Amino acid sequence: MPSVATSEVNLERLKALWEKRSKATDSTDYPIGPGDVIEITAPGVDDLKERTVRVSGNGEVELPLIGIVQASGETESGFRDRLKAALGKYMYDPQVDVFVKEYHSRQVAVVGAVRNPGLVVLTGAGESILDVITQAGGMSPEAADEIVVLPEVKGDRGKLQEIATAIAESKPVAGADAHPAKDSMDHHAANSSSAPAVVDVATVEQDMSNGSAVVIQLKTAMTGARKYVNMPASPGDIIVVPGGGNVMVTGWVYKAGYFQVGSGLSVLGAVGAAGGAMYAADPSQATLIRNDGTGNKVSIPVNLDKIAKGEEPDIPVRANDVIDVPFSDVKILPYVAYNLLTRVPVPGYSF
Question: Architecture of 37-102 per CATH?
Answer without folding.
Answer: 2-Layer Sandwich (3.30)
